[in-house]
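ARCHIVE CARD
Drawer: 12
Card no.: 0347
Subject: one protein chain, sequence and derived structure
Cross-reference: see card 0346
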Amino acid sequence: MASRTGSMIALASVVLIGMTGFGVFLPIFPFLSLELGATPTATTIAMGAYSLGQLIASPLWGRLSDRIGRKPILIIGLIGGVLSYLWIAHAHTIYDLGAARLFGGLMAGNVGAAFAAAADLADDKTRARNMGMLGAAVGLGFIGGPALGALLIGSAPERESFVLVCYISAALAGLAALAAFVLFRESLTPGARLKTGEPRPRRFAMLASRPTLLRFVAVMFLAIAAQALMETTFGLWADKELQWGPREVGWTLAALGAGAVVLQGGGAGRAARVIGERMMLLIGLVLFAAGFAGLAVSHEVATMAASLTALVIGIGLSTPALNALIAAQAAESERGAVMGLSQSASALGRVAGPLGAGALFDQLGSGAPFSVAAVLIIGALFVALGEPAKEALSETPS
C-alpha cells in the first residue's frame, strides 16, 4: 500500500508539472490568435485542432501502453508537448497555430497513460481517490499555470510576451518528462501486459458488448463538449462583456483550478465513499448545468462568479466519479485501451465543442455557447440517469 501511495504521488507530480505548462499557455491562446488577425470562429477551430489530434491518436497510445507500459508513453507525450509549444512560439499565421496544436494533440498519449496508471494502482476502495488525486493535480496546474501566464503576459501583451509564455510551457513539459523518467515507477506489471500475438481490445467491440461502458463514454463526450464550448469562448466572452484581457482571464482560470483542487484532492474520495460514485456523478452534472445556465445570462462579475462557483463544484464532483466508473469497466490487461477510449471520447468532445463555439458566438451572441453547453450537460444527465447501478456492477470485468 505504501509503495502504491508513493507511486501515485509521483504520478500526480508528473501530471501537475505537465498541466501547469498547459495552463500557462491556455489563457493567452485566444489573444495570440486575435493578434495574428484570426476571427473568433478560426480561433476556436485552431484550439480544437489539439483535440482532433487526441481523437486520432489516443486509442493507439492506449493500446501501446497496455503492451509496453505506462512510463514510456508518459515521457513520449510530454516530449511531444515540448516540440508543440516551441512550434507555437514561432507561428506567424492561424494555420501555423492550428498545425502546431494538431501535432500536440497527436503526441498527447500521456493523459490516457496517466489515468490508466492511476487505475493500475487502485482497488475498488481507492479508485475514486486516485482519480481525484489526478484531478487535483490537473486543478493545481490550472491554478499555477494561468496565474503564471497572467503575470508573464503583462497588461499590454506584445508578441515577445506570447513567445515567452510558449517557452515557459515548453520548459515545464520538459521538466515533467524528466520527472516521469526519474520519479515514476512503472505501474503495469509484466504479467498484466498485453502479449505479442494476443488479440488486442477492439474499441467498437468493447462498446457494443458493454452497454454500461458505452453510457459512461457518451456522458464523457457530452460533458467535455460542453466544457470545451466554455473554455474556447470564455476569453472572447470576457473581452466583450467585461472588457477583460489575458491577465484577468488567467486569474479567473486560476481560481477555477483552486476550487477543483479543494474538491478533487480530498473531497472526491470521501464523497464517493459516502454517496457512491454514480450519485456523485449525478449531483456533479446538475451543478455543471446550473453553472453554464448562469454564465449564459451573466453580464457582470458578480453573476459570473456565482455561476463559475457552481460550475467548478460540478466539475470537481463529476470528473473523478466519471473516470472511476469508466476505469471500473476495464480488466487489468485492457486499462490502457479503455482509458484511451475515454480520452478519445474526451477528444471528440473537444473537437465538436470548438467547431461550433466560434460560430455560436459570432452569430447568436456571447452567451450562446454557454446555453448550448447547459443543454449538453442536461443530455448527459439523462444518459447517466438511464444507467441502473445494478447493471453497472454486473458488467464490471474481473
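Annotation on reverse: The chain is about 80% helix and 0% strand. The mean pLDDT is 79.
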